[in-house]
Amino acid sequence: MIRIGILGGIGSGKSYVAKCFGYPVFNADLEVSKIYKKHKQTFKKLKKTLPKHFKSFPINKIDVVNAILENKSNLGKIVNIVHLEIKKRLNIFLKKNEKKRFVILDIPLLLENKINKKQDILIYVQSKKTDTLKRLIKRKNFNKKLMNRFRNIQLPLDLKRKKSKFIINNNFTKKSVKISVQKVLKIIL
Fold first, then answer.
1. Helices 72-96 and 40-49, interaxial angle, to 10°?
2. What span, in angstroms and rounded, lies between the C-alpha atoms of 102 and 163?
3. Lesser CB count within 10 Å: N end or C end of the chain?
4. What integer pLDDT is reported at residue 109 of this predicted model?
């Protein structure tokens, strides 16, 4: 099994690019949503760490946002707790898909949380800042302060780009992304 890690900035289209590969995708953002809705152990840990913000289960995303915006250090505390469960779910996903040719890892903090392996093939999704910002502003719960907090815990984009074996330019058209993905797969194979 070849592991492909998708890297890029917030709103660059990593999840869309990941889906275009046509192989099993581990989408950490989707898993976090499931954890908030269904994983009581994570709630208990969050409640113990930040009792002022986490009072009832299932976890409400607004409570998460309020905790992050109140204090810079809260984001790190939340990430540490949630990523323990993400790593467990990733291991289950990898075991389930061990016979697949490729698996795609769509994990925003892949490098930051040292989830990647040395042999992983890293692909950087590059998009214009103006296009990315337009897309982010259209999101239902867009909050610039929150977005900046997340950016502050991420490695610089230049470093992610340098660590990547491939760069896919995402101009947010299906055709160009699919062509780029096919080129990358041909080179890997």
1. 160
2. 20
3. C
4. 86
Structure tokens at 73: 């250090």
Average pLDDT, the chain: 91
Alpha-carbon span 71 to 151, nearest angstrom: 15
Q: What is the pLDDT of residue 82?
A: 94
Cβ distance 26 to 93 under 8 Å?
Answer: yes
Distance CA 94, CA 113 (A): 17
Token pair belonging to 100: 């697949």
The half-sphere exposure of 3 on its side-chain side, counting CA atoms within 13 A, is 19
pLDDT classification of 123: cutoffs 50, 70, 90: very high
Structural domains of the chain sorted by starting position, each given as residue range(s) with its CATH number in brackets: 2-188 (3.40.50.300)
Which regions of the chain does DSSP assign to beta strands (E)?
A: 2-8, 25-27, 102-106, 121-126, 166-169
The SS3 call for residue 169 is strand
Q: Does 11 score more than 90 pLDDT?
A: no
pLDDT score of 54 more than 80? yes
Q: What is the DSSP letter of 154?
A: S
Which pairing describes strands 102-106 and 2-8: parallel, antiparallel, or unpaired?
parallel
pLDDT (0 to 100) of residue 185: 93
Determine the number of helices (DSSP H) and then strands (DSSP E) in the chain. 9, 5
- Assess contact for 24 and 97: CB atoms under 8 A: yes
